[in-house]
């Protein structure tokens, strides 16, 4: 086996990720071992564990880069931006990271949907991203309750946009879907049904409310 | 030990839950075993596993009842209600289930926040609730993308409202906080900052948009 212990290996991270994905798709996630992933990448198990804490983690190594992009995007958004728009700017800033990775993202989503342990890991990662976003908003002077709520909404927006991008046409990047989902979100929350929607009647049971007119409680 | 195998035990579920919570608070979640929980409840381990698949589950046995209340609330909401308002009606319908349980809920939240494995389980339970809500909305004729988005927003609303209720004054029930969070959600999504908020400037980077006026994308 190539790759003796402790030696620095070029592109080890990428090689391990590619090997893992190839094996997961060929033999199934459950039937692939860390040792097989390392062997396929022509690296040792020890090298694997230098990069990843466990088998699941090989599918989540992008989460730190993702968080950095979102956090930087929120931090550098103009101070005049409303909290949710700053979050949207942060989310849109992640689009380049996913460019050229749509096929990989689709395969990865399929694996996550099919395995509870991967789904759990993803939810924990998203919960961490939520906390990081909320912390950024608090630094922008947004009070804690609002910061948490906006961060949670941001994650919903991101998940929905990502889902649409993964299954969408090649013409549009992730930022396009983030923007489109932001539009739908506004429609859904202000009380009317989202575009292209409604086979249900449009009559509203409550008054739609305008910014500033809603009663505090 | 009282409680021989296979015998029906009155209130076994509640006794196991109470015993578990008492031990978790006294000795810590990690240091409490299933066998100790059963012993404290004067039941056998076998009885424990008739009710719960593992130690974590003893904190989540209410999730089916919760789902039923939400689903019934959405299903019986007037057909004229916008999707998110039907979801809000479903969430408000859960308030009686939590009445008198605020102290328990607060202790439980503390445990979940402190233990990743409990946090993971909670996130999976909420993901299931999200799917159930989305399915209800689709039955009301809401298209899939919108149904998923509204269900996710509903969960954010519920989590935020629950957090506020757990830490809030005794005067108000959970339904009150669901309603209050719904108001904040509207403010946050239409672009202005939520009430009592803003130390940040209010000037908006984007036009706030009115129901029906937002462009589709």
TrEMBL record, chains A, B:
Region described as Disordered: spans on this chain: 191-217
Gene, per the UniProt record: tetR
Naturally occurring in which organism (per UniProt): Chondromyces crocatus
InterPro entries in UniProt: DNA-bd_HTH_TetR-type_CS (IPR023772), Homeodomain-like_sf (IPR009057), HTH-type_TetR-like_transc_reg (IPR050109), HTH_TetR (IPR001647)
DNA-binding region: 33-52
Protein name: TetR family transcriptional regulator
Pfam families reported for this sequence: TetR_N (PF00440)
Domain HTH tetR-type: 10-70
Biased composition (Polar residues): 191-200
């Amino acid at each position: 086996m190539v790759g003796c212990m402790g030696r620095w290996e070029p592109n080890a991270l990428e090689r391990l990720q590619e090997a893992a994905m190839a094996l997961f798709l060929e033999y199934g996630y459950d039937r692939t071992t860390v040792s097989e992933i390392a062997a396929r990448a022509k690296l040792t198990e020890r090298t694997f564990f230098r990069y990843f804490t466990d088998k699941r983690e090989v599918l989540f190594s992008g989460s730190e880069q993702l968080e950095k992009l979102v956090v930087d995007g929120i931090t550098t958004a103009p101070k005049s931006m409303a909290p949710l728009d700053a979050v949207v700017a942060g989310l849109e800033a992640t689009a380049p990271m996913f460019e050229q990775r749509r096929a990989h993202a689709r395969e990865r989503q399929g694996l996550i949907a099919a395995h509870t342990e991967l789904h759990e890991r993803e939810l924990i990662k998203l919960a961490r991203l939520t906390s990081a976003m909320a912390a950024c908003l608090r630094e922008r002077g947004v009070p804690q309750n609002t910061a948490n709520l906006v961060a949670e909404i941001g994650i919903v927006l991101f998940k929905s946009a990502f889902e649409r991008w993964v299954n969408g046409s090649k013409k549009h990047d992730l930022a396009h879907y983030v923007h489109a989902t932001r539009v739908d979100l506004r429609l859904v929350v202000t009380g009317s049904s989202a575009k292209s929607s409604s086979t249900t009647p449009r009559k509203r049971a409550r008054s739609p409310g305008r910014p500033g007119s809603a009663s505090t409680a």
